[in-house]
Amino acid sequence: xxxxxxxxxxxxxxxxxxxxxxxxxxxxxxxxxxxxxxxxxxxxxxxxxxxxxxxxxxxxxxxxxxxxxxxxxxxxxxxxxxxxxxxxxxxxxxxxxxxxxxxxxxxxxxxxxxxxxxxxxxxxxxxxxxxxxxxxxxxxxxxxxxxxxxxxxxxxxxxxxxxxxxxxxxxxxxxxxxxxxxxxxxxxxxxxxxxxxxxx
Length: 200
What we know:
By secondary structure, the protein is of the alpha/beta class. A hairpin with a 2-residue loop joins strand 2 and strand 3. The protein contains seven helices and six strands, in the order αβαβββααβαβαα. It has one domain: P-loop containing nucleotide triphosphate hydrolases (Rossmann fold, 3-Layer(aba) Sandwich). It is globular. The N and C termini lie far apart (35 Å). The chain has a six-stranded mixed sheet, with helices on both faces. It has helices at 3-14, 29-40, 103-114, 117-120, 139-156, 177-182, 189-199; strands at 16-22, 54-61, 64-71, 90-96, 125-131, 161-165.
């Protein structure tokens, strides 16, 4: 392996962006990931089955390698979520807006995660997808209310949050998701680590 190849691979590694995709079971996490893979890796859409354990997908975008960690949301798996928190740049939390009876459960699980922000990392950004809006009557009003409630709730926790309504089957609302994931504070890991070292 030549030196230039090694340097190139190291640069790509430094520009890795780790995105943890979490939410309750059947919220549409894997469908979101499937849409991303179909658009940015030209993969065929597939029949989605519940994720048992986790799946990792690497997607190139804007000179970054975005690692999407799709973690199962069943209640039996949730106690193990924090095993995946280390070095996470973005938490993508997916909520099923059509399952009104589970919204409180979803919010409580998100709050539980945020109580572990020392593990998740205080620089980790939070993006909440209000998914399955196509199944909700008066979706715009419902999602606006949910967005307002979430922002108010998480501002009390001093957590910066981005919310967006989506339909993962068609990709509506996901068009700029990857830009949001790598944008802003998702900087070169090598630069970030060297900065931290210089400060310490």
